[in-house]
Amino acid sequence: MFFGSKNDDYYVGIDFGTRSVKAVEVSMKKNKPELVNYGWITLDQVKETLNDSEVDYAELLRIALIRLLKELKPQSKKVNIAIPAFNGLVVMIDFPLMKNDEELSQAIQYEARKYIPTSLEDVNISWDRTSIDEENKTMKVILVAAPKSEVQYYDDLFEGTDVIVDSLELETFALVRSLVGKEKGHYILLDIGAKTTNLVYVEDGAVHINRNVDVGGVDITSTIAENLNISLVRAREMKESGKNFFTGPMPLVFPSLEYIVAEVRRILGEKKSQTLDAVIVSGGSAMMPGLSAHIAKVSGLKVIVGNPLSRVIIDPKIARHIEGSVGSSLAVVIGLALLAVEQKES
């Protein structure tokens, strides 16, 4: 679900996270998208080069973006970006069957007021039919809303650069595009970010539920630090070293993961009649040894690590650099690049 226009030859996605800015560039090769370029810069790396310790988050993002674009040297001057899921609204609404878009649009404007706690003039709204039941004369429509101030905020980050924002969407839809695509089935995506986890319930490639919880990789790191009585820096190093904290004589208990699993159960409780094909885990913590197996054990569900790289051909020159945790962390940004491919082909 996007707010934008069609892109041209190369397709660039840029993902602004709470701790980093990531970018990928995709081009078409034999009618298949090929990942030809990528870049990644953390805000900590930016901070280390600045004398002013009081630089705010927005300025850090802007500096990181400028440096990333300088290194990436993208072929395209148009980019696709995402708004964090917690800054938008995704609602599935049931309507009587309407085949006239104008009539449906008016009905959506009316219904939107029930879900959006501010003036509709202050938000960008997008919608799409996800399913039609001809027998019962009903249909499901997904409503997506994002504050215009948030859209402008990310637009402003590019002021003074030589690239423009071609389209902007909630990261939820980029995740689904790169991890599920149009595959049939029922899935829950768990994108574990640094500070938040995005949970998305997907039916046959369409988003039905989207929720966010305020726990993420930072909480996992904090648990390691507290239990082992070590610094956060050392805990992060151990977390990234390949050590399995879920097994052994004294496995650690991670309250953040228990909270995430509880939210998965709540979502499934709302979808009583549906059988879940799998929970798909993504994000920087997804490749943490034992994490997916632990979630599977606690939830009793099939859990797999998402692989956004399966949706693209990878240039051999960069393939070895983005395997493992790096590749898993590119789910949103690859989904953004693939958005432009979809728009070009439509």
Write structural notes for this entry.
- The protein has 346 residues and is α/β, with parallel strands linked by helices.
- 36% of the residues lie in helices and 30% in strands.
- It contains 12 helices and 15 strands.
- The protein has helices at residues 43-48, 57-72, 101-115, 148-156, 171-179, 217-228, 232-239, 255-270, 291-299, 316-319, 325-328, 331-345; strands at residues 2-4, 11-16, 20-29, 32-42, 78-83, 89-96, 123-133, 138-147, 164-170, 186-192, 197-203, 206-213, 278-282, 303-305, 313-314.
- The strands form 3 sheets. The protein has a 7-stranded mixed β-sheet, sandwiched between helices. Strands 12-11-10-13-14 form a 5-stranded mixed β-sheet, with helices on both faces.
- Helix 5 crosses helix 12 and helix 6 (217-228) crosses helix 7.
- The longest helix is centred in the first third of the chain and has 16 residues, at 57-72.
Keywords:
about 350 residues, alpha/beta, 7-stranded mixed β-sheet, 5-stranded mixed β-sheet, 12 helices, globular, disordered N terminus
By DSSP, the count of extended strands is 15
The side-by-side strand order for the widest beta sheet comes to 1-9-5-2-3-4-15
* Main sheet properties: 7 strands, mixed
Q: What helical percentage do the residues reach? A: 25-40%
Q: Counting H and I runs of at least 4 residues, what is the number of helices?
A: 12
Q: List the uncertain runs.
A: 1-7
